[in-house]
Predict the structure.
Amino acid sequence: NVRRILFPLALCLIWTCCLDSPAEVSTTFLRPQDTIASYWHSMIERRPFAALECFASAKPTDVEQMMALPDLVELRCIDFELADRGRGSVDVAYTVQYRTNMGDSLAAFRTGDRLILTQKGWKIFMPLLMARTDS
């Protein structure tokens, strides 16, 4: 019977296609800027394990080495500049603006990260620089 042959064959084909399809990437990691914003957002909310998910090769024990941010009322990342390094790697320079009290003016520093494209999206490979700016 042809049905007995085609049905298992069709199931195998569907199963193989599902295995070969790429994993769905979270919107958190779709673009390098999204990953960086997610990292800082997780840090300001004191969610270090969520912040670790933004890194390419982080281990849960790395949480112990993360520096906690002071209490902030506002933090945002602006002025992203991307430099494509090829082979799924980019250097991203950006400014972090923050405010510790509602009446304070924004303070800022310029920093950057190297990100790599993984099966789970863009992940931070390593920090690049940090320089204080006047705002």
